Amino acid sequence: EGLAAVRESVRALNPRATVVEAASPITADGTERIRGARVLVVEDGPTLTHGGMAYGAGIVLARAHGAAEIVDPRPWTTGKIRDTFARYPGIGPLLPAVGYGEEQVRDLEQTINRVPCDLVIVATPVDLTRIVRIGRPMLRARYTLAETTRPDLHEILSERMKQWPST
């Protein structure tokens, strides 16, 4: 229903628009470790805070592979992470990866390592292990773009470039 509504909106706003539809497959190495595990899901901070999303790739991965529980990090938050939850109460049982300064990065690391869980699923664009030390088993969710309609973006751009004068 949502996709049909978006298609209709696009047609109404710009009937000549070329639309490329795509999926965003989520993968990770070691997904067998998720089944039956109590997982802490660390999602992209701005997606949860400013973007208002209730979940991201980590939740999708955890549910698809049979996590027993998504562990709510709120009782174990510290400092700036606790402040983030106070400012954005709709985040829910996910840990937003915010770390724009030394203090936030330290508080994120402490929070991750305080949460009692079997596995940490990191679903952030940046590799958090390059920023914080995670003292628990973890896996990293990855997501890509998989176009599902034709013409795809490459075909559209190639055709349009033929129309541009060469220099």
What features would you describe in this structure?
The protein is α/β, with parallel strands linked by helices and 167 residues long. Helix content is 34%, strand content 17%. It is built from six helices and nine strands, in the order αβββααβαβαββββα. The strands form three sheets. Strands 3, 4, 5, 6 and 7 form a five-stranded parallel β-sheet that branches. The radius of gyration is 20 Å and the shape is elongated. It starts with a helix and ends with a helix.
**Largest sheet, strands/sense/barrel:** 5 strands, parallel
How much is the average pLDDT? 91
Instruction: List the uncertain runs.
Output: none
Main structural class: alpha/beta
Q: Which range best describes the helical content: under 10%, 10-25%, 25-40%, 40-55%, 55-70% or over 70%?
A: 25-40%
- Work out the radius of gyration: 20 Å
Tally of individual helices: 6
How large a portion of the residues is in β-strands, by DSSP E? 15-25%
Distance between the termini: 46 Å
Global shape: elongated
- Total beta strands: 9
> Which series of helices and strands comes N to C?
HEEEHHEHEHEEEEH
